[in-house]
Amino acid sequence: MSVRKGIILAGGSGTRLYPLTIGVSKQLMPVYDKPMIYYPLSVLMLAGIREIAIITTPQDQEQFRRALGTGAQWGISLTYLVQPRPEGLAQAYTIAEEFLAGSPSCMVLGDNIFFGHGLPDLLALADAKTEGGTVFGYHVADPERYGVVAMDERGRVTQIVEKPKVAPSNYAVTGIYFLDARAPDLVHGIRPSERGELEIVSLLEIYLEEGLLDVQRMGRGFAWLDTGTHASLLDAGNFVRTLQLRQGMQTGCPEEIAFARGWVDAEALTGMAAQLSKNDYGRYLQGLLTDRMMEG
């Protein structure tokens, strides 16, 4: 079985966040103490994925390379791909086709933030499925704003629809997609929508018609935040700040995940902590080392 690879879609023009994003990619904007992209990157790392492609606009790619490097500092490998024009979420699979090279994938949208103690378990359940696709549903008050997934009494997906006038359920489809190795080939057979885009819903409908689309429901203990507007970006930053100050633990911290999984050793973490020693982030990393020494 091929090892699952990751995709972060971090393209787009970010016009809803102008003037903030005129000179800086939306996915590099700060969400409290970290660049936004750290959060989807952390989701992939929590899923155990170490080969990750980051899809950016041509003009922003160098900024991402400077911010994230090769990924080696976290024990992962980052590949950078270009999205010349934003032509739908499903376009990511054709852009990443050579990178995937026949492997199954997990794609995370670069402006989505997830939090929840049970998130690694849900990701593991989705990763264990070798055929078909899995989406993650989150209960929202305004489902008409999102892609919506409907389920029967046994939790099987019966319908998936984009921004319905009358929603068949309150479960929005979040920005995490686990798909098998066929995804790029299937996208090649999709016709663009009326707005000229390769819609992710069109791709998911193929899996649904085959009876191979599952949904993992994110319950009350989870948070899913979109950062597409000025207000939601501020809300996300305040959420992360409140959570971290209250718990004394980081959220979306690649260094911590890499260390916990054994992808980097104490010496490597010491070096990363030293680079950030003038702020609370660096002191948190140093605290991880101290805790490990006390446990040992």
Automatic annotation (TrEMBL):
Entry-linked Pfam families: NTP_transferase (PF00483)
Cofactor(s), names only, from the UniProt record: Mg(2+)
Annotated CDD domains: G1P_TT_short (cd02538)
Keywords recorded for this protein, A-Z: Magnesium, Metal-binding, Nucleotidyltransferase, Plasmid, Transferase
InterPro entries documented for this protein: G1P_thy_trans_s, NTP_transferase_dom, Nucleotide-diphossugar_trans
Function per UniProt: Catalyzes the formation of dTDP-glucose, from dTTP and glucose 1-phosphate, as well as its pyrophosphorolysis.
Catalysed reactions, semicolon-separated: dTTP + alpha-D-glucose 1-phosphate + H(+) = dTDP-alpha-D-glucose + diphosphate
Record GO terms (molecular function): glucose-1-phosphate thymidylyltransferase activity; metal ion binding
Enzyme class: transferase
Protein's gene: rmlA/rfbA
EC annotation from Swiss-Prot or TrEMBL: 2.7.7.24
Organism: Cereibacter sphaeroides (strain ATCC 17023 / DSM 158 / JCM 6121 / CCUG 31486 / LMG 2827 / NBRC 12203 / NCIMB 8253 / ATH 2.4.1.)
Family affiliation: Belongs to the glucose-1-phosphate thymidylyltransferase family.
Protein name as catalogued: Glucose-1-phosphate thymidylyltransferase
Boundaries of every Nucleotidyl transferase domain copy: 5-240
